Each structure stands twice: as C-alpha cells, then as structure tokens.
Amino acid sequence: MSPTPNTPVRDRLRIAIQKSGRLAEPARALLASCGLSWRESRDRLFCYGESLPIDLLLVRDDDIPGLIADGVCDLGIVGRNVLEEQGSERASLDRAPAFREYRALGFGGCRLDIAVPDGWDWQGPQQLDGKRIATSYPALLSRWLKAQNVDAQVVLLSGSVEIAPRLGQAEAICDLVSSGATLSANQLKPVTTLLQSEAVLAGPADALDATRGELADLLQRRLDGALRIRHSKLLLFQASRRVLPDLLPLLPDAETPTVMRLDDGDDLALQALCHGAVTWQRLEELKRAGARGLMVLPVEGMLA
Ligand SMILES: Nc1ncnc2c1ncn2[C@@H]1O[C@H](COP(=O)(O)OP(=O)(O)OP(=O)(O)O)[C@@H](O)[C@H]1O
Ligand SMILES: O=P(O)(O)OC[C@H]1O[C@H](OP(=O)(O)OP(=O)(O)O)[C@H](O)[C@@H]1O
Ligand SMILES: [Mg+2]
Questions:
Q1: Closest ligand 2 atom to the C-alpha of 177?
Q2: Confidence check: pLDDT of 43 > 70
Q3: Strand 132-135 to strand 172-177: parallel, antiparallel, or no bridges (unpaired)?
Q4: Which numbered atom of ligand 1 lies nearest the CA of 81?
Q5: Which domains does the chain have, with CATH numbers?
C-alpha cells in the first residue's frame, strides 16, 4: 500500500490483535510461538517488538479491518465473521476491497447461523419471507437474504441477539454459534449456516512495501511451522520388522517414519511425526500390534 503524503514510511511491521476477549490470548500465544516477544505492556495499546521489528496494537476486534484499510497496521488477527461482515459492507457501498484473509489460524471456531424458535417446523429460507431477523451481522445477512431471494427485515442489535424473539423484536435471529448452549437456553434452534468462521490472519488487499512485506513473509513462514506442529507429537518406539505392516496403518496422520536398524537382527527403532492426537487408546492399539517402548515427545519447532 503506498503511504499517503502525511504517513511516514514504517520499517517495522505492525499487527493488530484483540485487546481482550476470546481471541486475545490465543492470538498472542500463537505469535509468541513464532518467536515474537514484546516489551510487555498489557494495559496499554501498543507493545514494542523486541526479538523482531514486529509491534502489536491492542484494539477492539471490530476496529481491525479498518485499521488495515487505513494502513495504520499491516496485519491483524480477527474472526472471519468480522472481516467478511466489513468486507460485505464495503462491497455493498461499492468501495474497493481494502483487506483480505491471508490464512486461517485454527482457533476461535464458530458459525454464523440463522436460528428460529424451537417450535418452528423449518421448511427452508422462504419461511423467513416477511419476517424480522435480529443480528449484529447486517451485511452478511442482507447478502444471504438477497441470494436466497427472501424479503425479510434486518433488525440490527449489537449484542444479546438471542433474546430478541422472546422480547418480540424479531421472529428469527442470525448470530454466532459455537456449542449451541446460548440458542438452547433461549428456546431457539439453528437451521442454516451462513459462514464457518475462525480466527484468521488478515492483511491489506494490496501488497505491502518491500521491508514490511519481507517481515510479513517471514512471519507467515513461521506461522506455517507453528500451525503444523500445533497438535503434532513425535512418537518413538521399537518393533520387529515383521509387524511393520500392522503398525503403519495405525499411523495414518504420520509423516513417513524414520526407521533405524537396532542390530543385525529383526529389531527396528522408529520415529514418526504424528499430526493428529496421540491418545492413550492409540498407544494401546500400537502396543497390541507389536510396538514396544512407546514414547511421545512434544515438538517445539519445525522449519520445512
Ligand atoms: N461462542 C464462540 N465460540 C467461539 N468463538 C467465538 C464465539 N463467539 C465469538 N467467537 C469468535 O471470537 C471473536 C471475538 O469474540 P468476542 O466475544 O471476544 O468479541 P467482542 O465482544 O466483539 O470483543 P471486542 O471487545 O474486541 O469488540 C468473534 O468475532 C468470533 O470470531
Ligand atoms: O453457541 P455458544 O457456545 O453458546 O456461543 C454463542 C454465543 O457466544 C457469543 O456470545 P458471547 O458469549 O461472546 O457474548 P456477547 O456476544 O454478549 O459478547 C455469540 O454472540 C453467542 O451469543
Ligand atoms: Mg467486537
């Protein structure tokens, strides 16, 4: 993005994350797992990067797309729901896209659902024709209604959307759902999903300048590694060569194991990087299939 005449060129990368809320700690932890550290300043709005010239801006999540659009920060960690809502709003106003999703980050998972009272016999979107739908996501809901050719009234609420039907403000709602507990507590049921969401790394639609672009690329490479090993474990064990055909199918999520011969005999030592959960049950199955001396080790870092 080219700087405006009053904006000095920055040679440090600035990432906006949520100051407090659901995404605040996981976002910080993920960046820390990429080797970033900052001069601590939890109460203030800015954290100065120490290990790399990458600073943090601590803000309300709703402000993140706008901060990227204005070039105040270069990257942000925000829910896809927020990014898509603000992107849809811009599109509905014929404004050019100014930010985009770079990659999903694997936490903060939830759905943006339409929910209706438990008693409704749901037949499909046409049932919403002429109804009022309460939401904090008016642009995404309007876009969906248009695509479904449904004429419904969008009632904008900034929170506690699930209570709107009971208060007589709307017949249905469109809100985030994770466990579904809030819906059931309000005698509502989800009937259709508009968006599958999770935390994402967002950045400008246009390329960053060379210095900050390089820092952003470096961070993305580290994120690749950090996300790949997030649930990965190194599994070490021994087994005789003849049971390998029984053992390998039990490791479908593992990269090709490293196999070392222990002596002149039939015995092998194996090490396998597993990307799925290595549960007790799995270890027991491996043992039953002939694995011995099973050991599970955490993976601290990985660079492909
Ligand atoms: N129930 C949920 N389960 C999982 N993720 C959720 C859930 N609700 C929201 N999220 C995700 O977490 C993001 C942040 O949620 P949070 O409730 O902290 O936002 P907020 O109240 O708008 O915070 P802020 O004060 O920064 O504006 C949401 O935009 C969404 O992506
Ligand atoms: O399906 P569930 O697991 O019940 O989660 C869904 C609820 O979580 C979010 O609200 P939050 O708890 O963040 O409250 P808020 O929207 O009032 O901040 C969302 O707005 C739903 O109300
Ligand atoms: Mg918010």
A1: 1
A2: no
A3: parallel
A4: 31
A5: 13-108+199-229 (3.40.190.10), 110-197 (3.40.190.10), 233-298 (3.30.70.120)
